[in-house]
Amino acid sequence: MATLNINDDETFELDSETPIKDSCEEAGIPFGCEEGVCGTCIVEVEEGMENLSEFTEEEFDFLGELDCERLACQCKILKGEVKLRY
Ligand code: FES
Fold first, then answer.
1. Which atom of ligand 1 is nearest to the CA of 62?
2. Which of 24, 33, 59 maximizes ligand 1 atoms within 8 Å of its Cβ, making it the mutation to test the pocket?
3. Where would you tag: which of 29, 58, 70, 71 has the fewest CB atoms within 10 A of its CB?
4. CB 39 within 8 A of CB 72
């Protein structure tokens, strides 16, 4: 199990390897393409970047070398706790 906290407000308990998209959507984060190309779903990772899946190719293309942001349509939570802000 893993814990996803969004904006210090909503907390979700998720199975390991679960995409975070549905929880983020429930918390009000907007989505567009859902394929990693539009950037609508950018979130800031405040804590727990190491608990998220590896950057996808789409994230590298869109975010470059930034290490504090992710595309919520692209990543999965793996373990532990992750805190996001948007
Ligand atoms: S919804 Fe377009 S990049 Fe995530």
1. 3
2. 33
3. 58
4. no
Please state the domain extents for the chain.
Answer: 2-85
Burial of 15 (0-12, 13-18, 19+ CB in 10 A): exposed
Q: The tokens 């608990």 sit on which residue?
A: 51
Total Cβ atoms within 10 A of residue 44: 12
Class of domain 2-85: alpha beta
Q: How far is the CA of 59 from the centre of ligand 1 (A)?
A: 10
What does the pLDDT look like over 34-85, one tens digit per residue? 999 999 999 999 999 999 999 999 999 999 877 799 999 999 999 999 999 9
| Spatial CA neighbour of 74 closest among 26, 21, 30 | 21
**Cα–Cα distance for residue pair 38/7, rounded to 1 Å:** 22
Virtual CA dihedral for 62, 76, 22, 27, nearest 10 degrees? -80
